[in-house]
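Need the bound structure for pyridoxal-5'-phosphate, inputs here:
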Amino acid sequence: MHAVDSKKAKPFLPFARPTIDETMVSAVADTLRSLWITSGPQVLAFEKALSEYHGGRPVRVFTSATAALEVALLVAGIGPGDEVIMPAQTFFSCANAIAHTGARPVFVDVDPITRNMDLAATEAAINPRTRALMPTHFAGLPMDMDALYELAGDTDLRVIEDAALAIGSQWQGRRIGSFGDIASFSFHPNKNMTTIEGGALVFADEAEAQLAERFRFHGIARNPDGTRDVTVLGGKYNLPDVNARLGLLQLARLDEFTARRQKLAARYFEQLQTDPPCTLPARGDAGHSWNFFAPLLPLDQLTLTRKQVMDALQAEGIGTGISYEAVHLTTQYRKLGYREGDFPHAEHIACTTLTLPLYPALEEADVDRVCQTLRAVLHAAKR
Ligand SMILES: *Cc1c(COP(=O)(O)O)cnc(C)c1O
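Answer from helper R.:
Posting the output first, comments after.
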């Protein structure tokens, strides 16, 4: 029996995986059976629950965080001629959302330890065209919120927090999104909770939430006589009820998911000693929600490229990812004049980062297996 078990192929470990339980599956089926499947009562209930989770602030949900970021920019009145400062290493959608409004994304380097937007570099990039700051809470580690809002206050800039990776994260005991200006969450399957695709904005101001609702649905406002007017150039970013129903049940388990992520991250810190050594991510504190765990590979001490390390892990049944490439070096954003060497920390992280498996259903033994395998791969490739 043991001999048979030991021969069994080890299960493949993806780097991210949502947790969908049978209660969620039946609830989604019930919503389908109700035949009210696009935005309706479940969206309202989901927004109410998200609002309660964030201290009663107004919340609106969208088809993605990318859509949410774009709507947040429109609500803030950002458009052609404006600049928005964002980190050079984050997900592409931040830059795209800014560019779609007609504004210009201005990249700054990240802090080499926290991998969050460098606030000294941010301050240096501020000029009269700057309208907003769009920092990412990288991997779920909150920005220094005191310093961020002090800078925004001093310079009179809006802040649109890209909290795609940070629902459930806390800064000094306060949830990200429960204070500050506008926060944007993602419910993509790789994030801390999922609605399949989806996103949300948390606002400080109910009037802005209502404006966001218009941008979300064709720019429509209702007239007293029952007819409709279009008052702003809106799009179509409304989340269906089927997705919202899933989101409600995911939110109910979010704190449990986060606790599990934190435990597994702690296990990585215990187990991930390699030779040559990787650079481990910043530990943060109890407020870090650990959306992903990404060491930097010691590529200068290896005979393998990152791709070869990823392939070697894949051959052992371990999936990995890259979170993320440097945005300023993509073909699209090089057109703004950026090039190699502009943001050394972002570029170094982008070239060496490797996202390892981390999700609530992962077991401690799986983390041990990942660490053991990575240790063997790196050791064998030592220069
Ligand atoms: C996933 C992600 C987004 C975009 O989220 P979507 O819901 O997929 O649009 C934005 N920023 C970061 C940092 C992300 O990881």
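Comments: Residues 185 and 307 are 30 Å apart (CA to CA). The longest strand covers residues 83-87.
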